[in-house]
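Incident review: delayed structure delivery

Summary: a single-chain prediction request sat in the queue longer than the usual turnaround. Root cause was a stuck worker, restarted by the on-call engineer. No data loss occurred. The affected request and its eventual output are reproduced below so the record is complete for anyone auditing the incident later.

Affected input:
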Amino acid sequence: MGELGTKLGLDELAGGAASISKALLAEFIGNLLLNLFGCGACINITQGSTAAPDIVLISLAFGLAVFAAVSAIGHVSGGHINPAVTAGMAATGRVKPVRAVLYVIAQCAGAAAGSGLLKAFTPDRAAGSLGVTGPGTDVTLPQAFGIEFFLGFVLVFVVCGVCDPNKPDSKATAPLAIGLTVTLGHLLAVDYTGSAMNPARSFGSALVANIWDSHWVYWVGPVCGGVAAALLYVHGFSAPAQETPRYKPVAGDEKELKRLDGKTEDLA
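Output delivered after worker restart:
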């Protein structure tokens, strides 16, 4: 395989098909759970489709869904669960282009499956638009784009920070930090744009409900914000590499110390 194929990531398909298949399945399931549980919180079974959205409930549902999914599949695929995150990782070279494209396809398919299950489980009188995202009252498209840009920005900025290879101590809390960032974004933006933060999440809802109004905002905004955040973090805020000690004790050193300790005791 040529150098170009290696740069694009074709070698991953040839040499690690089983590994990338598991990663794609993980991304599919992660987005399925996100749309099923997150968008499910947008539906009010008791009061029907005319009920006002409970912003706190929706925010917590999406944040907890991301926390759960990243905790479960992070070791398999990296736990992107979002084309904006994948785009940011691809822009900084952490994910090769072919893998990035396959991730986005799997994410969109999973989100569509999650929204499809939600529609199947929900009474027609309460289903409404199944959590389709759209600009709020009097919110213009440029304003909606700006909100979604910064939703993608803050999410990927935090992802880069907690997944920095030179900050190993932060990896244990990464799923919680990412989930809380999603909650933060929704607390701000549900009334502005529906707070997508995630193009696949919006795609799944729009596909099942067949509502595509202003859909481009929910791709261009988060992806541009995610790429900007990833480039800014990698080139401006990456943690410095940890220095490796020049001398490392080996088993022979410990034996020698024990031998000397024994001689010291004899002399005493």
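Verification: The radius of gyration is 23 Å.
Action items: add queue-age alerting; document worker restart procedure.
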